[in-house]
Write a structure and sequence with these properties.
α3 (96-116) packs across α10 and α7 (199-211) runs parallel beside α8. The chain has helices at 55-65, 77-88, 96-116, 120-123, 143-155, 169-183, 199-211, 226-235, 248-258, 273-286, 299-311, 326-329, 357-363; strands at 4-15, 23-24, 27-28, 31-41, 46-51, 130-136, 160-164, 188-192, 216-218, 240-242, 263-264, 290-291, 318-321, 338-339, 342-344, 374-375, 380-381. It has 2 domains: 4-119 and 358-381, Enolase-like, domain 1 (2-Layer Sandwich), CATH 3.30.390; 121-353, TIM Barrel, CATH 3.20.20. The protein is of the alpha/beta class. The strands form 4 sheets. Strands 6, 7, 8, 9, 10, 11, 12, 13, 14 and 15 form a 10-stranded mixed sheet that branches. It has a 3-stranded antiparallel sheet with strand order 1-4-5. It has 13 helices and 17 strands.
Length: 395
């Protein structure tokens, strides 16, 4: 019987070139971070997964959980998830502990597929490995730059694109208008509100998005404002997407029961892995809610999420970062490609991917407790590393 005999975290970091970076509400991004969890079996099989959180916290959780992974058959994915969640419940349930479990879980699924000789999407019950994908980027710069980003996305094979709103009213209206002009009437436009809007502003801007036929309006309000999201959802015909900051099925269940969401964005690299994300998608489907996972860290996460979408009847699309992210463009031996809006997962067993050893060596961060200060988009190290753009201005 094949069993896991080694668990390893591979922490990665790269610096963004100052003249080619992007900005968030916290100002220019200085670099990116991610963690790859790698499991090796006693007969030499290797499984990989992605965990997107503070790397030192992921390392601590994985160190604690490793004795409960080594020696086990990787095919028992559901049993593994429940055991690890129970062991970490006293310090986990959300946050880095659930993220670490998710990295282990993805690697377990990768191994399971390799042991059974099947792609994960088929093991999960999917009938096709072709998954719709959308280009994600076009952050705060200028409407002209947003339009250029949409043009690049089309040239790379995408038929859907997501831009960011939340700078100020005039910029947002101009950026959405510019994006729609480039995408035309037959391509989908998603808009991420980046948690920047007050409720009244979000309702007003949703009217603009209705006119521009937006595919969804993503998290315009503060992450935990559940009641305001219910109000917003009832005030607009644009679907409301939520979930990149939520963890595990018990977190998403609150949003589903409240009627606050049209599209859940549970991310295997954050919300607990493939096992948990598929459960979240199924519970969403039971309430008429669709599933489109967030994927912002690396290509391993994109692929893991894509397998979940392929197996979920309510799965609609997967996100691929287009901000010059080396974890997307260089991490895999065979880079991700999109053709006619589709990412093809293929028939290779497991997740169907391998890491590029040279890229891993070049970007490897040896000590996750010693990350250089900077704005890493979602994780910030060091006081004074951000330049907040100020509160949202409607007029």
């Amino acid at each position: 019987m094949t069993v896991v005999d080694r668990v390893e975290c591979i922490h990665l970091r790269f610096a963004m070139p100052p003249d080619a970076t992007f900005s968030t509400p916290g100002g220019p991004v200085h670099g990116r971070l991610t963690t790859i969890v790698r499991l090796t079996t006693d007969d030499g099989l290797v499984g990989i997964g992605s965990a997107y959180a503070h790397p030192a916290l992921v390392q601590a959780a994985v160190d604690h959980l490793t004795p409960f992974v080594v020696g086990y058959d990787p095919r028992a994915t559901e049993r593994h998830w429940n055991r690890l969640h129970g062991i970490s419940r006293w310090y986990g349930r959300k946050g880095a502990a659930v993220t670490a479990i998710g990295g282990i879980d993805q690697a377990m699924w990768d191994l399971r597929g390799k042991v059974e000789g099947q792609p994960v999407w088929r093991l999960l019950g999917g009938t096709s490995g072709e998954v719709p994908a959308y280009a994600s980027g076009m952050l705060y710069s200028s409407p002209e730059a947003v339009a250029a980003g949409c043009e690049r996305a089309i040239a790379r094979g995408f038929t859907r694109a997501k831009i960011r709103a939340g700078w100020n009213w005039d910029y947002d209206v101009a950026a959405v208008t510019a994006a729609r002009e480039v995408l035309g009437p037959d391509r989908d436009l998603m808009v991420d509100g980046t948690w920047r809007f007050a409720l009244d502003d979000a309702i007003a801007f949703a009217k603009v998005l209705e006119d521009q036929r937006a595919f969804w309006f993503e998290e315009p309000l503060a992450t935990d404002d559940l009641d305001d999201f219910v109000t917003l959802r009832n005030a607009t015909s644009v679907p409301i997407a939520i979930g990149e900051n939520e963890m595990a099925i018990h977190g998403f269940r609150e949003w589903l029961r409240a009627g606050a969401v049209d599209i859940v964005q549970a991310d295997a690299s954050r919300a607990g892995g493939i096992t948990e994300v598929v459960k979240i998608a199924a519970e969403a489907a039971a309430t008429g809610v669709r599933f489109a996972p967030h994927s912002w860290c690396d290509a391993v996460a994109v692929v893991a999420n894509a397998h979940a979408v392929a197996a979920s009847p309510n799965g609609i699309t997967v996100e691929i970062d287009q901000t010059g992210n080396r974890f997307i463009e260089e991490l895999l031996g065979v880079p991700l490609t999109v053709t006619n809006g589709l990412l093809d997962l293929g028939e290779r067993p497991g997740l169907g991917i391998e890491l590029d050893d040279d890229a891993v060596a070049d970007m490897r961060l040896d000590d996750p407790s010693r990350v250089p200060d900077g704005n890493y988009c979602d994780v910030i190290y060091g006081r004074g590393q951000t330049h907040y753009i100020g509160d949202y201005r409607r007029r």
